[in-house]
Amino acid sequence: MTELTPPPIAPTIRVIAMPADTNANGDIFGGWLLSQMDLAGGSVASCYSGGRIATVHIDSMSFLAPVSVGDEVSIFARIVSTGRTSMKVDITAWRRQRSESATIKVTEGVFVYVAIDEHKKPRQLPAAA
User: CATH number, domain at 43?
Assistant: First the structure.
């Protein structure tokens, strides 16, 4: 069953799905949605790590419902665990038809990011505050 209530926080990013984001059948391309999720997760990971990060793995990814041209897509990202250099980020995307108030969860995934230095080598995360 698809969830209907997004998290009670501000989304990390919000974007409108446009015609240029469609596949050959006119549906919003899954890769576009995945890239929006990676942008949101990367933003949270970069802020937490205090610098540059790299996406290294997607632990899981589920497409739950379609997104249509004109839908407002809100993406929520939160860090769920950290290691010495890496962070796991839980990311969910929700759609809302612009003329309605109802929302539907369309994707969910867990992405892994690694903090990197100026030489693109892993660096230790700052100590938790």
Answer: 3.10.129.10
Q: Which two tokens stand for residue 45?
A: 């990971």
Identify the H or E element spanning 37: helix 30-49
Domain assignment of residue 104, given as a range: 13-115
**Residue 22: CA count within 13 A, CB half-sphere:** 11
Given a contact cutoff of 8 angstroms between Cβ atoms, the answer to whether 53 and 122 are in contact is: no
Residue type, 109: G
Domain count, the chain: 1
pLDDT at 129 over 50: no
Question: What are 56-70's pLDDT values in tens digits?
Answer: 999 989 999 999 999
Mean pLDDT score of the chain, rounded to an integer? 93
The pTM assigned to this predicted structure is 0.91
Looking at the domain assignment, is residue 2 inside a domain?
Answer: no
Task: Give domain status of residue 90, yes or no.
Answer: yes
Whether residue 42 contacts residue 5, with contact meaning beta carbons closer than 8 Å, is answered with: no
